[in-house]
Automatic annotation (TrEMBL):
It holds the Pfam family ABG_transport. It comes from Cytobacillus kochii. GO terms for biological process: p-aminobenzoyl-glutamate transmembrane transport. One of its GO terms (molecular function) is secondary active p-aminobenzoyl-glutamate transmembrane transporter activity. This is Aminobenzoyl-glutamate transporter. Signal peptide: none annotated.
Length: 508
């Protein structure tokens, strides 16, 4: 029997998978990039390239040879500090201590189930996409909880379960950079952006906050919820047709003890929020700043990481105690330990990524690239909105091959943040453009960490489900998210609205 020829989409996806699988692990990739920077620093330093420092008039900067005697001494003497000083390391670990308790005590799962089950039938799709978007506060927990829950929910009301799975997956992954709350993603990417900005203007970087995109991501929640629901009901569900499978199952309702846990954890959230507000809002509050913007430029804003961790830790602890998931301090310690165990790969990645970022900065390659890159873009007249669109498309394409948002931004931020600053665009804008690109194409990348898990969930309802089928199902979400989100950013730029507290569009 003649073998059926694969379609163009399937062949393209196979090529993406083959190329992506040939890329080294991110840990190895950063080690290779570190070596490349060392070699480049030695070669470029011999060319005598010099540029004027953009932030200090009259100061000339040249490439530092990291393979000279002094450079080799720096490599060995700074290795530990490069690891410890890697900007996102402490930020992510501290944040995850709080979020980890909320996740492992069962609070996050109960909140998601309770929300989805309480939504009226006509708003199920909207509620499911919204819950997916909001799940990013618990890092990757949404990938495991919501897609199977969405499939069950749709099947329970007589709709195609794969449409429910797709809607949830679109919300969790496509909306990963939108939320009503600040999350670990803001801390992780924000610290890398601040480090990139410090290459050009350390003073400006010092005044930046991890909440730099907060206003924009709040509005993004509602935009993506509407787009995700519309794509589900108007494109994906009609294409899937009527579900004729035998699989039927009801979503488990919250138990009485889970409801009690949610009530008391909600009370603790309100109390915690009030206490946090009292630290910064009243005149003379200990965490309130001075000057014209006492809240934006305050110790409170520069302490958001531990505050976020505490605001997750307390309700997670309360929920666990009420439901008896946490019986004593040993349970708390074990759950915190389990959370840190799950961060092992990130810690290893931080070591090699920390070396790369440090070598890149020490060599001044980033600074020189920023100056020359800005001049090149100015010479070809690629500025303004076309520049932002091109950057988004480049980042979206790279995301298909490298799934880790932090790994990509650790590589891209030291290059693109300085270039954009040279052209007059703020680091905050560059980061938001990157986040739009990264989130929008997560759901069509076969190399995304949880892609295989989503396929496994889907095969419960369709045994023939494979990479091509899932990607073809998710492409409408990806395209509409990318276009709609980019248009929103363009409108935001034209109106000149701050992206977050003290986060302008333009860099002066």
């Amino acid at each position: 029997m003649k073998k059926k020829r694969k379609g163009y989409l399937q062949r393209s996806l196979d090529s993406v998978e083959t190329i992506g699988n040939k890329l080294p692990h991110p840990v190895t990739l950063f080690a290779i990039l570190s070596l490349i920077v060392l070699l480049l620093s030695a070669g470029l330093s011999q060319l005598g390239i010099r540029v004027e420092h953009p932030g200090e008039e009259g100061k000339m900067v040249e490439i530092t040879n990291l393979l000279s005697a002094e450079g080799i001494q720096y490599i060995f003497s700074s290795m530990t500090d490069n690891f410890i000083g890697f900007a996102p390391l402490g930020v992510v670990l501290v944040t995850m201590l709080g979020i980890g308790i909320a996740e492992r005590s069962g609070l996050i799962s109960a909140l998601l189930r309770g929300f989805v089950l309480s939504v009226p039938k006509r708003f199920i799709t909207l509620g499911l996409v919204f819950a997916g978007i909001m799940s990013s506060v618990a890092s990757d927990a949404g990938y495991v909880v919501l897609p199977p829950l969405g499939a069950l929910l749709f099947a329970a009301v007589g709709r195609h379960p794969l449409a429910g799975l797709a809607a949830a997956f679109a919300g969790v992954s496509g909306g990963f950079s939108a939320n009503l709350l600040l999350s670990g993603t803001d801390a992780l990417l924000g610290e890398l952006t601040i480090a990139g900005a410090a290459i050009i203007d350390p003073v400006y970087a010092e005044g930046m906050s991890i909440a730099m995109n907060y206003w924009f991501i709040i509005v993004s929640v509602f935009l993506l919820t509407v787009i995700g629901a519309w794509v589900t009901e108007k494109i994906v569900e009609p294409r899937l047709g009527e579900y004729k499978g035998d699989y039927r199952e009801k979503v488990e309702k919250l138990t009485a003890i889970e409801k009690k846990g949610l009530i008391w954890s909600s009370v603790s959230i309100v109390v915690g929020a009030i206490l946090a507000a009292l630290l910064v809002l009243p005149e003379g509050a200990p965490m309130r700043g001075t000057g014209d913007q006492p809240i934006i430029s305050s110790p409170f804003m520069s302490s958001l990481v531990p505050i976020i961790a505490i605001l997750f830790f307390i309700p997670g602890l309360v929920y666990g105690m009420v439901t008896r998931e946490i019986k004593n301090d040993k349970d708390v310690a074990n759950q915190l330990s389990d959370t840190m165990t799950s961060m092992g790969m990130f810690i290893v990645l931080a070591f090699t990524a920390g070396q790369f970022v440090a070598y890149f900065n020490e060599s001044n390659i980033g600074l020189v690239l920023g100056v020359y890159g800005a001049e090149f873009l100015q010479n070809i007249n690629l500025t303004g909105i076309p520049l932002i669109i091109v950057f988004i498309l480049i980042a979206a394409f790279i995301n298909i091959f490298i799934g880790s948002a932090s790994a990509k931004w650790a590589m891209m931020a030291p290059v693109f943040v300085p270039i954009m600053m040279q052209l007059g665009y703020s680091p905050e804008l560059t980061q938001m453009a990157y986040r739009i690109a990264d989130s929008s194409t997560n759901i069509i990348s076969p190399l995304m960490t949880y892609f295989a898990i989503i396929i496994a969930f889907a095969q419960k309802y369709d045994k023939k489900m494979g990479i091509g089928t899932l990607v073809s199902t998710m492409i409408p979400y990806s395209m509409f998210f990318l276009v709609g989100w980019t248009l929103m950013l363009i409108v935001w730029m034209l109106l000149g609205i701050e992206l977050g507290p003290g986060a302008p569009i333009m860099y002066e």
